[in-house]
Batch of 2 targets.
Target 1
Amino acid sequence: MGIALLAFFFAFPFVYSAGNYDYIMHICIVGFFYAILASSWSMLAGYAGQFSFGHMAFMGLGAYTAALFCHYFFISPEPTGICTEFALGSNYLIIKNPIGVTSTTLTQDCLAQAMEKWDGAVTVSPMPVWLGVILGTLVGGIFGLLIGLLVLPLRAAYLALFTLGFSEILRATISAEIQITRGQAGIELPGLFENGITIAGHYFGKTDKIPPYFVMFFLLLGCLAILYWLSRSRFGLFVRALREDQDAAAALGVNTTRYKILVFVITSMMAASAGAVQAHYVTIITPNNLMILQMSLVVAMAVIAGVENFVAAAIGAILIEFTLEMLRTSFNIGGIEIDMTLWRLVFFGVVLMLTLRFARNGLLVPVINYFSRGHVAAETVVRRKQSESSEGASTAPGVQGGSS
Amino acid sequence: MIELEVSRLNKKFGGNHVLKDVSFEIKGAEMIGLIGPNGAGKTTLTNVLDGAVKPNSGTVYLNGKRIDQLPPFEIAKTGLGRTFQVTRSFRRMTVLENLYVPALALGKSHTGNEVKEQALEVLEFLTMEHLRNEYARALSGGQQKLLELGRLLMLDPDIIILDEPFAGVHPKLMEVIYDYIRRANAQGKAMIIISHQMDSIFALCERLLVLNYGDLIADGTPEQVKKDPVVIEAYLGTTEDRSGTGHGDEAEQS
Amino acid sequence: MQYSSIFWWTILWLIFWGVAGGIITRRIYLRKDLDTSNATLGGSVIGAAFGPVGLVPLWWKSPEISRAMITLSSLVVIGIIAVAFANADPENNCVSNGSFVASQITNGLIIGIIYGLMALGLTLIFGILGIVSFAHGAFYMIGGMLVYYMVVVWFPGAHPLIGVLGACALTFALGATFERLFLTPMYDNRVERPIEYGILVTFGLSFTLTYLVAALAGFNPVKVKRFFDFPRIRLPDSSDPWLIKTSRGNMELFDTVSISNPRFVAAMLSILVLLALLYFLHRTWTGKGLRAVSQDREAAAIAGINPNRMNMLAFALGSMVAALSGAVLVQAFSWLPIVGQIPEMRSFVIVVLGGLGSLPGAFVGGILVGLVEAAGTGCVPNPQKASSYIPAYGMMILVLMLLLRPMGLFGRKFASGAHGKF
């Protein structure tokens, strides 16, 4: 089943050819973006039991790092003489001065002034996009480490409030430091492939959706591969033990501190990398992307699909993103205009509550378990029957709960 | 040779002096009962030994290594394992996964069959083989208790502290636990058993430690302890002339 | 800000000694086997207030850190900040204009009372159910919306107080229904992680309610006229009303402090509700039952109180209180479906500051936050930046509080150590 899904997503951009191609591709990319966030959050919350509300903040950190990096750092063969600059081999690293959004003309920052003086004689090159993405990921990891260290003694409700607090502080700071971040207006980034890209002899233009589609797709696959590897290694076992009972795990030799911090660092880096790539793809990032309602989307996607299974969370995020987009079209019933852009979210919220209440494993996990654990369950049932008939009542109390 | 050296251990919670200069030694695979009335400091002593709580003063050496300031996981790896008064299995993990945790924490490889075989052996011993793929939360209380004991076998420590292993256990499982304790002891592990069930303690242990409000008031064979006037006064409190006094909440069980 | 460097150096000085005091005092108290529950907070405020002069004797003698010491030191810290600010920015309204300061303080107090009321609902829910209700802001929003619909849309001309009562009744019913339908699995271990379940499911409720109202009412801001007009009062006499002077929408005290009518009315209504709530909690059988459950669930159950019913009551009552603060504030602000978010965050800050589960803590915390916000809006130069930073100030208090003293200023001390409750 997994291979079929993979093949489907690989082939999709080349097979699909309806008129809304760009729109569908866009939904796919956004779906992948949410899939990375939801699956990494499911590792953090579902596996390790750290219900953090700061995941979107890490996404924002990655995005803003990439944005600020592209916005303020340039390479020039000549010194400008007015900017902050460092010699870098034969070139110069130029750091632009922040001018904020108040300037109507763009000639007020030092680099623009210098370029005006040079009058086209010197070509200033921007920083490579991939370097910004990597830096964003690293910054996400550093802050993940910091938050992981700070929340060590906090549990449950206190952890949720602390991470929410962190997220809000970050959002407020970004909105307020208009000089640097341009505040609510958001900061613009170059596209992922600003000058287009040629792959296997085929040229893809700047607005072509196929390159970003595959960038995001491979990022998702990379994250899923890491998560898969982690979940199958001792890391996965330990963080689940940590979720169930921290003290018992420590008493059995598990370094709970290390794994709690590690899980924060790893998932934060994933969120940050997704944020950086997404910001380059949509070419703008605003503080509103860090809002609690955005966070609730990720949480809801993971929970509806199944928070204790990151594959389910990833697939669920893509499916839900599609469903939400498909439900956008408003319609008329008996003359009453139903504005689906809002009603679909109401519907979504109700589904979230009902899933939590009646299907605690999520809606997708049973499906996945049917494929992966079905034989184990059958085996257990057979064994249980055997043991019951041979040992009689002594083990009977043990089967009261049954496996879910 | 197992060697646990506890000297002058003190622990205060605020103004409450829970352990007062507790010192004792364990040499070799002894079978020790730790008794005392409720609030005597038994669980605190366990928590201090296991690293969950740091002592205010005093030292603990295990096999020549000082462990009183180490975090719990280091102590567990050094060779001291414990169960909890309230059963604390990893409820949403399967029985096998529960057993893998301590083995992998010791650094054993999770690929290959070594750990799995070891775990299956443990399960066989606990007569829980048929439950290996069940979630721990689906087990009965007694079986969860057995699972905790199984995890300790996987950790393979030198010293095992069992906090109330017999509380609320079906008589049939009791046999398994007795068997477990004897077998672990025969494998060369020192056992410290905390219990209020005196008949079990007397049946199993060759040495008793008696705690009373933080003081270690007696250390000796069951016979010695039974006759010890200090213990009788402080703990058993059954002498007729002072039946109204004393801390005899467990007296009826002795 | 001409001498702003003075101000920032002072702040740096405070932070340095605060951090040093917090960390080292705790270490010292630990080593001396003393009670450390106040050591971090006490050490950091004493450090910030008196610097090394205060810390050295503290470390030397290590007395028991009392609430009086913490309060005194906090006041000194505030004083230092105020003096530094006054020196750095002598032109500022907050420094040069006495009547402005008086107005700001009065308004801070008034709005703080309303904040306190809302936080009281949240702390009531936490005390009894053990969960942080993320739907608190949604209930606040619903309260205001219901008043708007009742007095403007459905029954134009109805008295606003009827609208407020109606909003209370409806939100109480909504809270109770939600609790019965969605929170009951928490109590009997049918969910594995009850606290996280509670957070997520109230989160879901908040999401649903916000968009439901948005879908029904749209995203246009609505407004309700003020509930009452002030009577025309001129005291002590009409030619020279220096004591009190009212117009219909405003009141002026001592010719300096001006209070707007909607806020005044909202605060008065809040005080009435608060008194009623205190009476209910302390004087009635059910209220005592609620408090008993929040202190010791098992013991209360043994004493014959049905904790299940108390859960329902607490959630319904707590949500109703949130709705009520919305209902009385709808006359002061324009109302949107997302209007609850900031008050919700503020309530989180207040309950953490006062201590999760502590009723007096919520109230004092509310007033403190009201005052801080008044100072923040009134005094910080560059108002645009200030307004963006205001939510962050609160969150910084929350984050610091969770790090320094998770049980809050008035919170009960939970079981500490490895099996603690945080």
Target 2
Amino acid sequence: MSVLKEKLISSYMAYQDDLDQDDLIHEMRKSAFKEFELSGFPTRKNEAWKYTPLASLIKEDYSVFSKKTNALEFKDVKQYFLHDIDTYKVVFIDGIYSSFLSETTHDGMDICLMSAALIKPKYRAVIEAYFNKAIAKDSLTSLNTAFAKEGVYINIPSHKEVEKPIEIINFATGNEASLMLQPRNLIVVGENAHVQIIERHQSLTENPVFTNSVTEIFTEKRGCVDYYKVQNDRLSASLIDNTFIKQGRESNVSVHTFSFGGKLVRNNLNFYQEGQHCDSTLKGITIIEGKQHVDHSTLVHHLAPNCESHQVYKGLFDERAVGVFNGKVVVDKEAQKINAFQQNNNILISDKATINAKPQLEIFADDVKCSHGCTIGQLDEDALFYLRSRGIAEKEAKALLMYAFANNVLQSVKIPELKKRINTLIANKIGVNLGFDL
Amino acid sequence: MLEIKDLYAKVEEKDILNGINLEIKAGEIHAIMGPNGSGKSTLASVIAGKDEYEMTQGSIQFEGEDLSELNPEERAHRGVFLSFQYPVEIPGVSVTNFVKTAINETRKAKGLDDMPAKEMLKKIREIAELLDIDRKFLSRSLNEGFSGGEKKRNEIFQMAMLAPKLAILDETDSGLDIDALRIVANGVNKLRSENNAVLIITHYQRLLDYIIPDKVHVLMDGKIVKSGDKNLAKKLEEKGYDWIKEEVKTL
């Protein structure tokens, strides 16, 4: 048994005694823990984890809870916020809510804490209706459920357009020698309601952090969610992001994932289109180097007719970096007139970089339009010659081409300040320094 | 300015250029015509320094310097410009930003500071006007979604901005309607001086109605088989290439 599993089992016993036995989700925690105990961490024998080994992560003796409450000054972490515009903020420091850095609301909607929602009677109906209802039963999600205590609770009522973006930030201070975090988020978006959310996980030191996060999102009829995941963490930080999205009729959900840093990142992004005329957008840009590892495992499950899904994932891999793209599209028999589009383009900058790409289509309906394309290559020689013939040196020309390759995924980012920020991150990451404002 | 002597070049073991001799002096306009596959575009790419072509024999001198020793960007810094037959799309980089980058990279190579923003803006405005290009066009991503004509006009815009000593126009007339052709030709003519030269590579004579060449060369099977003045272009337009083939055979 891995060091971490042993630790989790012993911690769970103590943790359970600590919790309120009448808690709404107490039974769920118990059975989820049993599931985790039984299946353990996934190994490479599991097809879905073939290219993403967790062995090196679960050897570490993480603290499962932070022993004390830590504080941060805003000025020290300002750079991680979208500080040039007004936003709602839900901030956690080592897994514990920071009211000082947060800006929550109960004014016509709830943007607050999971810990509060789990115990207060007024949230009971929502928790009962939605909590743990979108998840797939895999061991990491079960593990998160077993320890579910804190995270973000967002409930946007019908016809409400949230006027500013919500930032969810999980800081790790490094006060623990190594720390495991398991945030649990629930987001319910009512009929015709709109919301924009930005999520990031940020470690502040070189002490190891392992985050196993679960986010459930429900959108009712014509609801609209734009979700942005900014993954630009330190080399000591690893993240397993499990996101489950259930879409009602005519709803529109987009998730952009920007993976620029971290030791190991696994994105399990799952869309379930349950109502007709849904629209799902999954976009990702991965730019990594060194020995970094980023895995995008996506699922778009079309359960209803007349829906669309659009997936575009682009990756640039340098040095010994490893990328994985496993894009699964399932079209049920009832889901006629589907338009499912999937595209995955990768550029290997170094000979030693690796990309494992695997598109998977399971189509049971007969009247559908499904397309997928996957490319793995180097930079286009003709394009390089074009730039060089205009006097742009080879190194800059390559950087410009990589920038152009990644950049067009940003077109669908709807928050201009975020778009600018990501644009700059990409340019810095690639080393485009061409004397113009991006 | 440009002196090509006995130039042989191949791509992937296939001989394309088989002994080209060509001299272009400052202030001159030359046209190279020839049937498909005669090596016209290869010649343009070899002068600009494309890697995949291997020069096996001969020399290319530009203002007394051996070009074959220089990489493409160094050739551009010396004043060689190639207008591409198929320009490349660069999403996310506007026409303006691209041309600024190209100008400042060239200045950097010459040890100069960036062109002051005000001067750059003025130059962009003047040349855009000359080529009848509107401002919206300049803020679009380079060549992305451009029509054939827009791409060509954008090439000429870049040429005008970079003010090269030798401009090579590779099939710049293809994809242009008559109005666009006139605008492009007008632009090229306005930028002419005693200090620069133009090499036009084309299938058709029609661009040569607007840009009058000093010399016309016919390229066949990687060789210049006939040279003459602008009347040669007219004759080719009327009679095609067969009569030259016959002439070459009898030689």
